[in-house]
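Sorry to interrupt, but I need a hand with the structure work. Could you add the entry underneath, on a fresh line?
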Amino acid sequence: MTISAAPARSVLEEACALAGFNPSGAEPVRIAENEIWRLPGKVIVRIARTGQWQAAVREVRVAQWLADNRVPAVRALPIEQPVEAATRPVTFWHELPPHENGTVRDVVTLLKLLHQLPVPDFPLDRLDPFVRVAERIEGATSLSEDDRAWLRHRHAELREQWEHRPTGLRECVVHGDAWVGNVARTAGKPPLLMDFERVSVGPPEWDLVSTAVKLTTTGAVTEAEYAEFCKAYGTDVTEWDGYELLAGARELRMTTYAAQYAATRPKWRTEAQYRVDCLRGRAEPRPWHWKGIM
């Protein structure tokens, strides 16, 4: 089974009718857990999964809150949204000009702005580092049952440790998935923060760990880049007593994400198995060299 653009077009058309947009000429940008479409007129349509209504509401509210606080970020269109089409929440956004992924420096610059803001007066969930991990493990059918049982055990172990995590920095609003792929760099303008699906309240270390594991786990960030990141933020999360816990949670998320896709996309099966092998001690020592999924 592969995910194609065809099944969501009817959802797109229904959502556009509800919101007052013309879906003619719509083009798929990215078809994954969430489906992203581009409309003529520089409008981006985001179709979320069934059951994610509250998350979609939160994304739109967060976008407006960031705009009110002058944090550079993608902007939701000023319309009544989300709308619901075929049980799926759909939101509408301003399209960005041509852009590329941000840098490690861009990530820390935006995190400092975000983490300094007071918690807003609309509801935000508490941070859960293990959102969808259980579902991803059950859906990782390309893995052996032994590997999936190990992942379940690791998940339970980390959840237990999370409940007794060490005290760290003052809790604040966190992005939840802060990495260079969720920062857009456009010509001549400040970098922009994107993807507010996991914005919540919790320890800021969770956002910092996203970059730290790129050094300690995957080697995608150089020591010089990471040193600049720490200097700009003012702390090195790898020196915190809870680092191994949060890094372990990140590694588990990255592994189960790959395994979920490998179940329906055979080209990712080698990568998913490699990540499991790394976690289980069947590969070379860290840092590993994980390939990007999607």
Remarks:
- The first helix runs from residue 6 to 19.
